[in-house]
Design goal:
The protein has 3 helices and 17 strands. With about 260 residues, the chain is α+β, with helices and mostly antiparallel strands. It has 2 domains: about 55 residues; about 190 residues, Umud Fragment, subunit A (Ribbon).
Length: about 260
């Protein structure tokens, strides 16, 4: 069984259960004995009012969509610091709130998906990366080149990257990477910096993930594979983007569908 940690979802579940018990006790035991002219005390009224709201939020967050804020530059240029993404919670199956155990299998990640997952070394933290290696794949990353099952992944050079979250002290080169299935996405490489080389076979029920900002990402090259049970969901859309350094909303990014 997965370890339970007191994150927002756990507190939300506890609040829902507590207000639900009060609502049920009032409805079944107290309300029938209460004179119609009497009003329930403030605590009971609070629980009755908030229980359906908390229940709706818990169900929506646990089984449908969950918001996630991008805290680092590891997925630039696809995702910027201050982007807020929506995560599809049912793409990879429905899981019980708090315990994260899957009870309905609805699908598995595909290569190229941008996924949110519980960080394997510390499951209290959520990370976001791109799925590069599927179970059974041989993944090699050497001299800034990616190989999948012995075949080099195609890179098209796009020029110097000077967009948002660019490294002010180094030159960043942008490439279009084409995965074996044909999915394309941009990646960055940084002059004078090199991501770790690795050659591994992805075990069953695990995934190899990498950040699009290849030389500024701690990912499966560093801490290993993502177990299937750690998956939270598929990130599919930017619903808000804020440049906190300028306190500016980046309206052009709102509604952008992730690829």
């Amino acid at each position: 069984m997965n370890n339970v940690h007191m994150d927002f979802e756990a507190w939300l579940a506890l609040a829902t259960i507590a207000t639900g018990i009060i609502w049920l006790v009032d409805r079944l035991l107290l309300a029938p004995k209460r004179d119609k002219s009497d009003e329930p005390n403030g605590f009971i009224e609070f629980a009755r009012s908030f229980f359906p709201v908390l229940l709706a939020v818990l169900l929506l967050r646990a089984f449908v969509f969950e918001p996630f804020r991008i805290p680092s530059k590891s997925m630039v240029p696809t995702l910027l610091v201050g982007d807020f993404v929506l995560v599809n919670k049912f793409s990879y199956g429905l899981r019980a709130p708090v315990f994260h155990t899957k009870f309905l299998d609805l699908g598995e990640p595909e290569r190229g998906d941008v996924v949110v997952f519980r960080y394997p070394p510390d499951p209290t933290k959520d990370y976001i990366k791109r799925v590069i290696g599927m179970p059974g794949d041989q993944i090699t990353y050497a001299d800034e080149h990616l190989f999948i099952n012995g075949e080099p992944v195609d890179l098209e050079q796009l020029g110097v990257y000077d967009g948002p979250d660019a490294d002010a002290l180094s030159t960043m080169h942008q490439f279009m990477e084409t995965l074996p299935e044909g999915m394309q996405h941009p990646i960055l490489q940084v002059d004078g910096r090199r991501g770790p080389d690795v050659s591994v076979t992805v075990p069953e029920n695990k995934y190899f993930v990498m950040g699009d900002n290849r030389d500024n990402s701690a990912d499966s090259r560093v801490w290993g594979f993502v177990p299937e049970e750690n998956l939270v969901g598929k990130a599919f859309m930017i619903w808000m983007s804020v440049d906190f350094s300028e306190f500016d909303v980046r309206f052009s990014r709102i509604g952008h569908i992730l690829h």
